Amino acid sequence: MGAKLATWRVSREMYADRRSPLWGSRLVLMVHDELVAELRADCTNRLHDAAERMAELMRQAMREVAPDLAGAIEAEPALSRVLSKESATVRDGTGRLMVWEPEEKEGGLISGTVTYFRSTGRSR
Fold it and tell me: pTM score > 0.85 for this model?
């Protein structure tokens, strides 16, 4: 229920709220407790703001449907140019999100042009 509510709210801001940092982004995938989106990459600050907003909407929705777990609800954003389950949250010294890069594989570095956001909602 919480994931559906979060998905609806995220989608609404992507398509209908021009003031949101999510506006113009596209939700690509929802799997269990995870949302994957293509974020507008026209500005590094926008990526950070959009990813953090998406994670906050996920936390809010889960707290509403499971208030008894409110203190344990997490949604940690990750930015990546490739869709990978290995992607992780990377932050600079000031706490701003940075794009996670995969390690080199035998065939060379995997590259992509679209920045994906992955946020996983969990209860501790």
Answer: no
